[in-house]
UniProtKB/TrEMBL annotation:
<protein>
    <recommendedName>
        <fullName>Lipoprotein</fullName>
    </recommendedName>
</protein>
<feature type="signal peptide">
    <location>
        <begin position="1"/>
        <end position="21"/>
    </location>
</feature>
<keyword id="KW-0732">Signal</keyword>
Length: 274
C-alpha cells in the first residue's frame, strides 16, 4: 500500500511539474528572430523592446538587408515588439512602432573610433540668422531695431560678437568666447532684443575634421533645436521682445554626432539595406 501511495505521489508531482512548464508561454517568433541567430538578440531596457548586437554577428559591419527588413517588419507587425535596436560597428539604429520613417533614430555606436573622432573638443561658435518681417525697414532702421548681447556663463571667460552683417531682409550675427580654456567647458548665452517683428534661427558653427565626412577641416553649420533649450521669448513692453537661449559643448557634441550619424546612414548603410 505504501509503495502504491508513494508511486501515486511521484506521478502527481511529475504531472504538476509538466503542467507548470507548459503554463510558461514560449517567446513568440518575430521576423528579427528568424533573420539572425537568437544569441545575438537580447531584451532591451524597456518592455517589449529588443537589442540586436549585429557587429558581434558580423564584425566591422552595421547591418544587412535581411536584418534591416526584419527589424522593420518586427515593429510594424503583430509581434508586440515596439522597439528594435540594431547595434552596428559604427551606427546604431532604433526601429520604433508608429514612426513615420524607419529607422526612427540613428546614432553613432558608443566607443567606436568614429564616435571618438566626432566627440572631440572641436572649436565652435554661435550663429544667429535674424529675418525682419517688416520688409519696408531700411538696413539702418533694421540695425537700430535689433540689439544683441552675449555672455559667458560661469566660465570666467569673455563673450563677444565676432561679426554682424545685414543683407536684404537678413541680419547674420556670429558670437563666441574671446578666451577659450577647455573647449568642452564653454557655456554661454545670448539675448536678442527686437523692436520690430522678426524670425530668429539659432545654430552652431563647428570647425571639425571627420575623415570621410568633413575633410579637410572646415566649418559645419548645425541645428540647435533638438539639443539645446528652446529660445525663450518675453514681451518687455513698448513693442520690444526679448529672445534668449543658452549653448554649451554638450549640445555641440550631440548635434555634430546626429549630423554625422545621419550622413553615415545615408551614405554607408542605406545603399546596402535598400
Amino acid at each position: 500500500m505504501k509503495k502504491v501511495l508513494l508511486l501515486a505521489s511521484l506521478t502527481g508531482l511529475m504531472l504538476s511539474s509538466c503542467s507548470k512548464k507548459s503554463d510558461t508561454p514560449a517567446k513568440p517568433q518575430t521576423p528579427i528572430s528568424k533573420a539572425i541567430d537568437a544569441k545575438y538578440i537580447h531584451d532591451g531596457a524597456d518592455e517589449n523592446s529588443l537589442v540586436v548586437e549585429y557587429s558581434s554577428f558580423n564584425a566591422n559591419a552595421d547591418c544587412d538587408k535581411t536584418v534591416y527588413q526584419a527589424a522593420v517588419e518586427t515593429v510594424q507587425g503583430g509581434s508586440g515588439i515596439n522597439n528594435v535596436t540594431v547595434v552596428g560597428a559604427n551606427l546604431t539604429m532604433v526601429f520604433t512602432r508608429g514612426a513615420l520613417a524607419q529607422p526612427a533614430t540613428t546614432s553613432l555606436t558608443y566607443g567606436t573610433s568614429l564616435y571618438k573622432t566626432v566627440t572631440q573638443n572641436w572649436s565652435w561658435s554661435g550663429y544667429l540668422t535674424i529675418k525682419k518681417q517688416n520688409t519696408s525697414l531700411t538696413s539702418d532702421q533694421f540695425n537700430k531695431a535689433i540689439s544683441v548681447k552675449v555672455n559667458a556663463v560661469n566660465t570666467g571667460d569673455v563673450a563677444a560678437i565676432s561679426s554682424k552683417t545685414i543683407a536684404g531682409d537678413f541680419m547674420n550675427v556670429e558670437y563666441a568666447l574671446t578666451k577659450i580654456g577647455s573647449l568642452n567647458s564653454q557655456f554661454l548665452s545670448y539675448e536678442v532684443q527686437a523692436s520690430t517683428p522678426i524670425t530668429l534661427t539659432s545654430q552652431y558653427q563647428v570647425s571639425c575634421l571627420i575623415p570621410g565626412f568633413v575633410s579637410p577641416q572646415s566649418i559645419v553649420v548645425l541645428d540647435i533645436s533638438k539639443v539645446s533649450p528652446t529660445v525663450q521669448q518675453k514681451d518687455l513692453g513698448g513693442g520690444v521682445t526679448s529672445y534668449t537661449q543658452t549653448l554649451d559643448y554638450n549640445g555641440v557634441s550631440k548635434s555634430l554626432s546626429q549630423y554625422i550619424a545621419g550622413r553615415y546612414f545615408v551614405e554607408k548603410v542605406y545603399p546596402i539595406v535598400k
